[in-house]
Structure formats: structure tokens, C-alpha cells
Amino acid sequence: MPDTSFSTLIASVGSESPATGLQLPEDWMQGRAGYGGLAAALALKAMRSHVPPARKVRSLLVSFVGPVGAEEFSIRTRVLRAGKAVTHIEAKLVQLEAVRCVVLGSFGGDRESAIRIDPAPQPEMAVPADALELPYIEGLTPAFTRHFTYRWALGELPFSGRGGHEIGGWIQFRESTDCLTEEWLVALADAWPTPVLAMLTSPAPASTVTWEMGFVHLDRQACTENDWWGYRSTVDSAENGYVHERGAIWDPEGRLAVYSRQTATVFA
Questions:
Q1: Is residue 121 part of a domain?
Q2: Around 238, how many Cα atoms within 13 Å sit in the side-chain half-sphere?
Q3: 127 Cβ neighbours under 8 A, 6+ residues apart
Q4: Per the domain annotation, does 87 fall within a domain?
Q5: What are phi and psi of 147, to 5 degrees?
Q6: 115 falls within a domain
Q7: How many Å apart are CA 238 and CA 217, to the nearest integer?
Q8: What is the extent of the structural domain holding 31?
Q9: Residue 222 pLDDT > 70, yes or no?
Q10: Three-state SS for 48?
Q11: Global pTM?
């Protein structure tokens, strides 16, 4: 069967609530679970109908309660509060009568402010043409990674037995689009492995438990063309099977677009 495009999956979530009859195809799985970045992106799309366009997504808090499998699921959204400037929305992905993922989204309009601090700059690293291309290997790399093109530029490769503190490089969707919105950025931001996998010498599964994202530089145009986006992730601590890490995505012009923090588990 042909792969399912990201744009097709995002378009499957309409304005009705709950969004029902949704499924994650095999090419968007990672092991027995669907790709978490896709689940969070679908939740964000479901939230959009509750807020006017002037209220931009400012943050997402994601808790992966359990794996979203291949069965049908629904997304149930609820406005927790709509204030003068900020709207808070909850989205739950429900499958087989069990909650599999909970997402809290905050949407707010721009404010007049005397405070401005420039965001973190993109790290120095080899340009995409000079960075290491990571191939998709059937049966070895997670199925969902076939939808992305990677160029590795910082840190050691997974299962190389060295490193483990940092990874980074460049990423873009394999499918073409001239309207890359925040839903696409959510998928890009979760597509890299945790840096600590580099400390291992053989494959082992890893899974995100919680994930926080902040969206910045939202004064850019609503649509961005598909191009190389910079990425870097560093580990703050890892012990007793849990990893705490932080990451960031920079747009094709080198401007910070997303920062994130994750708690992950590694089964090794």
C-alpha cells in the first residue's frame, strides 16, 4: 500500500467535536504505537476550530497516557476557559474506550509589550549538503521516519556506544507542501530519537511520557514552505530508566520556531 501523506491525515480532522473514525496507518507507526508527533499534531488541528485565527498557539502540554494503536480512535475537545486574551483547550485521544493521549493547548493573541528578549540562536553546524544523510531502513528504523529526510550534524549516532548528551542536524518532510503550519512543526519536533540512545551498542525501544512545546516567532506568515529546519536536543539528566531533555527547532531562515522539553523512558 502507498504511504499516507501527513496532509491527508491532518485534513481528516474536521471542525466537528468529537472527531471520530480516525486511524493511524502502518507507515506512521513506531513499534506497537503510532508516532507521538502525529498524535499531538492531530490534537492541535482538532483544537483549532475553537479559537479565532488571531489567537495563535502558544504552548502545548502532551501526556502520552498509553500507545495509540492501529484501531479507530476519536479526539474529544473541550474549552476549559476563553479569557480576554488566552483560550485554554483540552483534547483527549480515546481508543477502545480508554484515554491514550491528553493534550492541553494555550492560544493567545499578540500583546503590546515593552519586554523583548531575542530567542536562542541556531547552533553552528554543517550545512545540510555537508551533513550525514540518514537512510530509512525497513525493519530497523521506525516506520514513521520514512516521511522525513534527516541530515545528522551534531552528536553521535544511535547505538554507536558513545556520546549520549546531544544530537542535532536538519530535517524536512519528504512530501512537498507550500503551507507548513504549526501542526507540521509538531511532527518535525518529535521526529528525532532521544540523544541517550547513542550510549547503547544495540537497538532498544524508547518512548516519550510527557512533552511540552512552546511556539515562538509567530509573526511569520501562517504558511511556510517545506525546507530544511534546524534541530538540536540536549540531555539534562538520565537515571533509573527516565531521560529529561530539551530541544529546539529553527526555521529555514535560522529563527527559533519551537522549543520543547521531554521526559522519556528508555528500555535498556
A1: no
A2: 21
A3: none
A4: yes
A5: -90, -5
A6: no
A7: 31
A8: 6-109+126-266
A9: no
A10: helix
A11: 0.95
Helices (H) and strands (E) in the chain, counts: 3, 14
* CA 208 vs CA 98, 145, 265, 268: distances in Å: 18, 16, 6, 14
Which residues lie closer than 8 Å to 263 by C-beta, 6 or more apart?
208, 209, 210, 211, 242, 243, 244
Confidence of residue 220 (pLDDT cuts 50, 70, 90): low
Q: Would you state the cell numbers that stand for residue 48, as one nine-digit string?
A: 483549532
Three cell numbers written together for 69: 494503536
| Cell numbers describing residue 161 | 556506544
d(CA 222, CA 220): 6
The sign one gets for the Cα dihedral 51, 259, 18, 1 is positive
| Pair 211, 187: CB distance under 8 Å | no
Residue 41 in contact with residue 184, Cβ under 8 Å?
Answer: yes
* Paired residues of 249 in beta bridges: 231, 258
Residue 267, φ and ψ in degrees, nearest 5? -95, 65
Residues 14, 141: Cα–Cα separation, whole Å: 31
Residues 65 and 84: their CA atoms lie apart, in Å, by 32
Q: Return d(Cα 168, Cα 235) in angstroms, integer.
A: 12
* Residue written as grid cell 541530515: 151
Reply yes or no on whether the pLDDT at 156 is more than 80: yes
Is residue 44 within 8 A of residue 105, CB to CB? The reply is yes
Q: State the average pLDDT for the chain.
A: 93
User: pLDDT per residue over 46-104, tens digit each?
Assistant: 999 999 988 999 999 999 999 999 999 999 999 999 999 999 999 999 999 999 999 99
- Count the helix, strand and coil residues of the chain and give each as a percent rounded to the nearest 5: 15, 40, 45
Query: Does a structural domain hold residue 46?
Result: yes
Alpha helices, DSSP H only, in the chain?
A: 6-11, 36-48, 182-189
How many structural domains compose the chain? Answer: 1
CATH of residue 221's domain is 2.40.160.210
